[in-house]
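During the second year of the project, the team shifted from modelling isolated chains to modelling whole assemblies. The rationale, set out in the original proposal, was that interfaces cannot be judged from single-chain predictions alone. As a representative example for this report, we include one of the complexes processed in the last quarter. Its constituent sequences, exactly as entered into the pipeline, are reproduced here:
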Amino acid sequence: MTIRFLTSGESHGEKLNAIIEGIPYGYELDFDFINNELASRQKGVGRGNRMNIEKDKIKITSGVRFSVTTASPIAIELQNKDWKNWIYPMSIEKINFFEIDKNLQDTIKEKIKEKKITKLRPAHADLAGILKYGFDDIRYILERSSARETATRVAVGAICQNILKFYNITFNSKIISIGECDDEKRFQEYIESFKKKGESLGGVVQITVKNSPAGLGSFTHWDRRLDGKLAQALMSIPAVKSVEIGLGKDYAKYSGFKSHDEIFEENGKYYHKTNNSGGIEGGMSNGEDIVLTIAMKPIPTMKKALNSVEIKTHKKTKAHFERADICAVEACGVVAKNMSAIIILDAFLDKFGRDCKKDIDLAFKNYQKRTNEI
Ligand SMILES: Cc1cc2nc3c(=O)[nH]c(=O)nc-3n(C[C@H](O)[C@H](O)[C@H](O)COP(=O)(O)O)c2cc1C
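Output from the structure prediction step:
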């Protein structure tokens, strides 16, 4: 079994939900920690006004008793405070449509028709989405493809981080660059200058996982490789366009002698002096820090709109604009950290057991003892 999770919810729907399966019994959850992670996804220079409205706080409705995980599926809810401002353009079921007065039903239907979005947004899911599903209103696509969904991923990942903290495994994210600026003291003014132009930015973030034991993942089959799993999880974050492990694409520039990490041993302890592999060799963690670097493309929705097409008339138009971030690289780092935590916890439980904390603690201790004796 693996950790599985499903999310549901639209950007301006009533709430976001997630169900996580595969969390063992016996872990005390730290709700302040989880809510802090949610709050840090909402921060960063360049975020849109939506962040002033939403104050994400986790609500757990099953799978936890007296703050301790029970091994049953955990259900999570996050309210969209902004929902009330979006009842008309949003999906009608959200207000128990069939329970309301017939006249009001008709008024709502008319209002929704007026508010159809028909101007395709380049660099979004819009074009492929209307072709694939045959929608006549881009709102169907916008609502679910929106990165608002990443709030639920952060809630799930924060629970996984919470559990890994019991084993001293921690996660950190750091912005390496925003657009062409790599001076962290200048990030704010750099972003502000693009905001003035009605433009947007992307950037590069590095995730570091500390104190991971060696041996998570496996070389024995393609879909058990830890690097492959992390890459899939990180690439699934909206707007992430590359994932690198350790030296990543720079490996191609150097010779084997200049790039590979040599192995040393002292008093029975193996170690490397360098970490170009980013802590993963042969699809397994090797005991060094796991270092992952992701690149996020610039936010597609911009005040200075791109050229596009209107789907009713097929006429040239400017892209639809709806309130957007200018730069969400910091938030993307928080999402990436938490997606990494889901994958690392899953690999950790693969190695040490999936049922209860007591068994897992013992297995972890025994493994540390055995590997110290090799
Ligand atoms: C944390 C975060 C916030 C984002 N905010 C916005 C936004 O406000 N406006 C926007 O157009 N895109 C935003 N994006 C990016 C889009 O969701 C993404 O580019 C789009 O869904 C298309 O997917 P793709 O870039 O993976 O092809 C955000 C992404 C992340 C990770």
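The first helix runs from residue 31 to 41. The two ends are 30 Å apart (CA to CA).
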